[in-house]
Amino acid sequence: MKALFFDLDDTLYDQLQPFQGAYHSVFSRITDLSILDLFKKSREYSDKVFALTESGEMSLEKMHQYRMMNAFKDFGYTISADEADAFQQEYKNQQYKVSLIPEMKNILQYASTKCIPIFVTTNGPSTHQRQKLESLGISEWVPANHIFISSEVGYAKPHKAFFEHVNVKTKTNSIDSCMVGDSFENDIFGAHQAGWSSIWINTTKKAKPIENVHPTYETNSYQQLENLIKSLV
């Protein structure tokens, strides 16, 4: 591989941490609910309507309400739209305090010493994603023009056009590009369509959702990921 492309959320940082912080701040009255399970459910509902938010058919505010109200409903709780809004505001505040997963910092430092170009590809609103990236403090390894956000590109992962756009802008070839991410559907399937290699970060050991698509590599921990990338570059 001659270029590394990293996803942002749940790849460079642990998305559960800001979620937990927001939950304890807004829903401390609910003590018998697994925050991890609630987080997973909220992500499922986000994924269901992501395309609608990208196209403008659903506002981000409505999406945030939809995912939290339905996630709580699945566990037998009812929350109001106002509570969902309060949670989202606190969640956003917590996301701007995130830090790099330690092994990811080691990987970025190591790849940089090997003169491997490093890029970030992420879906989401431009300002929100860039603020999270700023809080991670990765500019010494990933300059601003090495960041590609779906709302700026005009396409979202896993669309092949997104990956093709990135190759053109970075003057890289698909055969030399490696996508590193946690989302099989967005990162691994998208890379597969574009002819990129891929590394699937599968810390929860989920089954592959698309049977005939295979990541080039799969890791079940960030230490495995660090060891793998160091062996490849």
Automatic annotation (TrEMBL):
GO MF, one annotated term: metal ion binding
Transmembrane segments: none
Keyword Metal-binding among UniProt keywords: yes
Cofactor: Mg(2+)
Pfam families xrefs: HAD_2
Keywords: Hydrolase, Magnesium, Metal-binding
SUPFAM superfamilies linked: HAD-like (SSF56784)
GO biological process: small molecule metabolic process
Protein name: Hydrolase
Organism annotation: Neobacillus cucumis
